[in-house]
Amino acid sequence: MKPIHVIFVLLVSMGAIISFVLISDPTPNAAGLDHPTIAHIDIGGDGAERLAPIGRAPYWFMVALFSMVPFLLYLGISRHRRTNLVRAALSVGGLASLYVWHNMYTSYETYLATGETTIFLGFPEPTAWFVYGLWCSLVTYTATYFLGFDTFIFPKEDEKAFTELMAEINATRKAEAEAG
Amino acid sequence: MEEFRQEIILTCVAAYMGLCIWVGIWAMRRTKSAGDFFVAGRGLGPVVISLAVFSSTLSGFGFVGGPGLVYATGMSSVWMTVSTLGYALGFYLVAIRIRMVAEARDTVSLPDVIAARYDSEAARLLTAITILLGVLGYMATQILAMGLVLQSVLSASEMFANISLFTCVVFSSAILIFYCVTGGIIASVYTDLVQGGIMIVAGALVVITAIDVFPGGMAEVSETLLKTDSESIMPFGTLGTMASIAWCFMFGLGLAGQPHVVTKMMMNKSIRDNKVILPITVIGYAIAAMLWISVGVVMRALVLGDVAPPLSSADEAAPVFLSTYAHPLLAGIVFAGLFAAIMSTADGFLNIGAAAIIHDIPRAIRGRSLDRELWWARVATIVLSVIAACFALYSYYYGSKLVAILGTFGWGTFAAALVPVVMFGLNWKGATKAAAITSITFSLIINFSFQVFEITVPYGISPGFIAMLASMILFVGISLLDKRPQIAKDIDRIMDL
């Protein structure tokens, strides 16, 4: 199966999840409510109540999204450089973001069920997973880009091949200009 | 220093306006051709490009709209800032190939690149029209924001207490037009550099200030919000899970289709610079985004904890925070940064809008762009600015929804129409012309229908997200069903690298 086929399957899965959400029956606070006394501020209300009609749809949507990202990035690597090293590096990013997402979502579900959470570095646990964890997990792709730039993103051989292509194009342009 | 707060803010803003005029004159000397005007002659260094890319993404919204959204809806809008994802996709999938196509085909705009990839003038025309519509909306909102901010800064002083919005719009537009017309994209990227620098420094300082507002720091902020409405400080905010993840998808993946951002990826001097451009961009954005989160969350806790009075509008979160809690000099620098953000974003949009009018649309229709492109580019810049300013004033004084409709037509529409065409098109040889034309047309129809017919999507899901997901499925689906296309030899060789 080619990367584009995996991407297509995951996109269709996301489309199916969204279709399910759109036909479900939203609660009045599904997208928040106006604050009862203060203008220009919304409140979320009962989080468990508004999640009830859609179940774990958001969880699975993001699983599909974070699974799709490494395949999208893989598509950007030229075919002849798609080595096991590339696959391993991108998989690390994918698995890290899935791990953080899973912990963030399950700790949020636990809070909804128990009403209890701990504060970590200034934020409730699920939010700390989001603010610190998700950002850091996705930064692995940036690190992979930087570290792998000369090996599989844009190695010297590709630079040379592009220089040769530009030399051919410029020669053709010059010949055309001389011919009038 | 506190008693001179207003004077310090005014001085910083005036100094910035002066800097704009100087940058315009300086950039004019470096602008000798349409290529210089639109893509800075592809001669910019990595630091300039890095800061220009992340500044283009944040714009004035990062200073005002973002903190306002966090104030109003808690953590929901923070999902827009998961740009580490968007930047990674942009650099893995777009940056290098778009730069190579730009050099090989001597292109000056995104529609040029799309026309080269799909060998289709129809795709070029549709892309140019999409850009033009988006630009008009973005420009009108930027000009209106610029006028309103200038009015709020000036009216706080005795001398300009009764200054009208009309005067402020005319004055700020005049400076904008001067520096855009003279300096083109070179002026834009160098003010992006100023904006980016200010945002990084101000982001870090404002976060420290915000943490200090409550004696217990961010933990006390979180505890206050947990007591009043816990959902707001939970990861999905008051808008809930679906609205948040829809924003994550649209703003994360959507970055690769923003013409004002990807056009900047065509401007670097050396392709190898991309190696450092991505990390610098991500680090700069991460620091600057902290301003967005911290100010919004702290202002919400102050109001809900009965420490501060409620705001008259959510967009006042950042200005009120700065004028109440920040050191006057920091407030002055951030206000100047706000002008830098609005002006450089407006300049970037004027630039791609002017390219659409004088370069892309004529090329798509009659096979060649206008003669004396540089001269016409400057004329088109003035015309676009004046139209956008008229739109903005008409909308404000007559309560028209036109600007709001065009304004919301921005990011989501660019993402829906252009992400599949650019992101898949530059990396997958199976992407076809028919898929490109269909997905652009389809996404424009969906987005306009949602806006014009005022259709509300349940769960606070953004219509732009629906259009983008549908457009991506359609694009890949049609391409898979279609016959494998013939690609021009040079583009084919670039796609092999």
Automatic annotation (TrEMBL), chain A:
> What keywords is this UniProt entry annotated with?
Membrane, Transmembrane, Transmembrane helix
Q: Which residues cross the membrane?
A: 7-24, 59-77, 84-102, 129-147
| Organism superkingdom | Bacteria
Please indicate if the UniProt record lists Membrane as a keyword: yes
Q: What is this protein called?
A: Uncharacterized protein
Annotated source species: Kordiimonas sediminis
Automatic annotation (TrEMBL), chain B:
Main location (coarse class): membrane
* Similarity section: Belongs to the sodium:solute symporter (SSF) (TC 2.A.21) family.
Its BP terms in the Gene Ontology are: proline transport
| Described function | Catalyzes the sodium-dependent uptake of extracellular L-proline.
Q: What cellular component GO annotations does this protein have? A: plasma membrane
Coiled coil start-end: none
> Membrane spanning segments where?
6-27, 39-63, 69-95, 125-153, 159-181, 193-213, 233-255, 276-303, 329-354, 375-397, 403-427, 434-453, 459-481
Protein name from the UniProt record: Sodium/proline symporter
**Gene3D superfamilies tied to this protein:** Sodium/glucose cotransporter
